[in-house]
Design goal:
Bound molecules: copper (II) ion, zinc ion
Order of helices and strands: HEEEEEEEEE
Strand content: 35-45%
Largest sheet: 9 strands, antiparallel
Number of domains: 1
Helix content: 10-25%
Structural class: mainly beta
CATH topology: Immunoglobulin-like
Number of helices: 1
Number of strands: 9
CATH architecture: Sandwich
CATH class: Mainly Beta
Length: 175
């Protein structure tokens, strides 16, 4: 009986440490491109261990209720000029544009996110394609995140024909 209690205690401590939230490394607050101030989402980046980073991206954009938006990381962390200053898709591995997890895709090709009747949607991505290390080609710090008003066809080069840039944010390290 004592032995059983001991193992139950060990198991409980193990679960508690697994439940502990991973360390937040970086964050991007997404704003509308047309006024640059209304928040329409947030992307949080966590240390997922094993050299991986986990992103939890949440969009809350009432004007886009019941629609699908496309999300990518773009090269520059500059949301000016309706998001155009972010330039093209960030592409450190020199691959073709595509669907996340397919044969070839850009390291920030998050893809389409369905928004519900409130305009809310969420996606979680865990990958070793990202880092926050200074000077690392994989570093996501200072990149732009663009939310598009259309859907990504995962084919058209190099953009996925995803439509206008309706939201934008810059990935910043958590100090
Ligand atoms: Cu894009
Ligand atoms: Zn792309």
């Amino acid at each position: 009986m004592k032995k059983y209690l001991f193992f139950a205690l060990v198991a409980a401590i193990g679960l508690t440490s697994c439940d502990k939230e991973d360390k937040e490394l970086a964050r991007a607050t997404l704003n509308r491109t047309n006024d640059g101030s209304s928040v329409i989402g947030v992307a949080k980046f966590f240390d997922a261990g094993d050299g991986k980073i986990r992103m939890a991206l949440r969009i809350d954009f009432a004007d886009r209720a019941d629609s699908t938006v496309a999300v990518h990381f773009h090269e520059h962390g500059d949301c000016g000029n309706m998001g155009e200053n972010a330039h093209g898709h960030w592409n450190p591995t020199k691959e073709a544009h595509g669907k996340w997890g397919s044969g070839s895709y850009h390291s920030g090709d998050i893809g389409n996110i369905e928004l519900d009747a409130k305009g809310q949607g969420e996606i979680i991505v865990t990958t070793d394609r990202w880092s926050i290390a200074n000077g690392d080609a994989k570093s996501i710090i200072g990149r732009g995140i663009i939310v598009h008003g259309g859907t990504d066809d995962y084919k058209t080069q190099p953009t996925g024909n995803s439509g206008p840039r309706i939201g934008c944010g810059v990935i910043e390290a958590i100090k």
